[in-house]
Amino acid sequence: LIENMKKFLMIIIAIIGLVANSFAQVPAANCSVQNTVKPGDTFVVTVNIKKCDLACYAQYQQLLPEGFVATEISGKSDNANFYYENNKVFYQWYKLPVDKDNIVLQYNIKVSEGAKPGKYDLPGYFSYQVRNRLGEINTTASVEVK
Q: 69, 113 in Cβ contact below 8 A?
């Protein structure tokens, strides 16, 4: 009888664990830009990050095509350090803000006058480290130069 109760208790604990995990919040991120631009235009990139309960080291990176140049919009970094070099945008937090569940980043991209018409991908990702494990969320966006 005691052996059967132990098995029953183990099954109940496993079910509770599965149910608890199904309600756990998962971080999410996306990037939005306007659909079309002309050579010489400047447009705004908006990155929305739902960080849930993360309070760890994290960074956001986005690779820009040749001829696209990023500049920071003052006050639109949610306490991240902004860097732009070698056609890469970086936002870095040594510790994500604990007082916010949602983070919004915004920066400008200027398209060079010589940009050729076509669709340009802006591959990006939000990465974070929690309990010595790396998580990563793809945020690739596209813009068409006309």
A: no
Residue 121 to residue 10: CA distance in whole angstroms: 50
**Model confidence pTM above 0.85:** no
Phi, psi for residue 82 in degrees, rounded to 5: -100, 135
Q: Which two tokens stand for residue 133?
A: 């494990």
Maximum Cα interatomic distance, the chain, rounded to a whole number of Å: 81
According to DSSP, residue 38 is labeled -
Q: What are 92-146's pLDDT values in tens digits?
A: 998 888 888 889 999 999 999 999 999 999 999 999 887 777 889 999 999 999 9
